[in-house]
Amino acid sequence: MRAIVLDAPGPAEALTMREVPRPEPRPGWVLLRVEAFGLNRSELHTRLGLAGPDVTFPRVLGIEAAGVIEAAPGTDLPLGSKAVAMMGGMGRAFDGGYAEYTLVPASCVIPVDTDLDWARLGALPEVLQTAWGSLVVGVDLPRGGSLLIRGGTSSVGLMAALLARRAGATVISTTRRPDRADVLRAMGVHHVVVDDGEIAATVRRLVPGGVDGAIELVGAPTLRDTLRACRPGGTTCFTGMLSNQWIVDRFYPIEFIPTGVRLTSYGGDASDLPREVLEDVAAAIHREELTWPVQTYAMADIARAHDDMEQNRVTAKQVVLTRGTT
């Protein structure tokens, strides 16, 4: 089978496509015939050597994939059904989704009944799990509340905006680039704020008293300012690290966190995304009730795709199709 292998951290060109043996099924694991896989900044961190000691090389990257269950010995997962897989060590402790087949623990797999095309289904699992979990678990945003998304043009930011609008929220999203404001408005964002590093005062002018919740996707450099945009009793959820910085230097909670504002975090896996949520959102996209932008690539274009991700060129979820054309 074809797989994209990283022998050691390096530039985008370090990702090479080669023929490798197809994984052999074993009890408790699922062999998934991969039709599409999404790109995530987690894989960028791994490629850059920032992923930590649990990653060994050579490695097939990819923390998610979508495809068809080919084998699932020792499980009750239905053969031939569509499914997505994510997290649980994929692409880090063992080979992940950047391949025509991937072998993953059954706990990573969610069967899905959907008519959605592979490109958009492949664009869903990790981003939906992260956005939904951040909203529902991390922020616990009240229906009709106000939400700040710091890092709004990221794929998680775009999905969070879709979900929040669907829940009747007032959505404020940030971008560092004014030319991307229309992209956010097309996703239903009510207010676009150009991020110069300090946006709390602007947000409070839009929502006097502060927002009910905020999802921090940029990371440590903007977290303090995001907290200041929340009302007392509101919640900021630290979810993403678009800045590649996740450690808050000299963190003194009483001085750092405004009085009464809650600071949480979110990092989930397959078990944190209910199947009914996945199928509901997939159906809404299929019916065109929700618009979910996708940028597709062929496997041979993986270096270009990773470079696009690293340089923040794309305002859509990046997906690689293992078969067919882009």
Task: Describe what is shown at a glance.
This protein has helices at 41-47, 118-122, 125-139, 155-166, 181-186, 200-206, 220-228, 253-256, 275-286, 302-310, and strands at 2-6, 15-19, 29-38, 59-60, 64-71, 82-86, 101-105, 109-111, 146-150, 170-175, 191-194, 211-216, 230-238, 262-265, 294-298, 317-321.
The termini sit apart by 20 Å
Runs in which pLDDT lies below 50 for 5 or more consecutive residues are none
This entry's quaternary arrangement is single chain
SSE class: alpha/beta
| CATH top level class name of the largest domain | Alpha Beta
Task: Compute the number of strand runs.
Answer: 16
Q: What's the CATH topology name of the largest domain? A: Quinone Oxidoreductase, Chain A, domain 1
**How many DSSP helices?**
10
Task: Please name the CATH architecture of the largest domain.
Answer: Alpha-Beta Complex
Largest beta sheet, briefly? 7 strands, mixed
Question: Topology of this structure?
Answer:
Elements lengths: L1 E5 L8 E5 L9 E10 L2 H7 L11 E2 L3 E8 L10 E5 L14 E5 L3 E3 L6 H5 L2 H15 L6 E5 L4 H12 L3 E6 L5 H6 L4 E4 L5 H7 L4 E6 L3 H9 L1 E9 L14 H4 L5 E4 L9 H12 L7 E5 L3 H9 L6 E5 L5
Parallel strand pairs: 9-10, 9-12, 10-11, 12-13, 13-14, 15-16
Antiparallel strand pairs: 1-2, 1-4, 3-5, 3-7, 3-16, 5-6, 6-8
Helix pairs in contact: 3-4
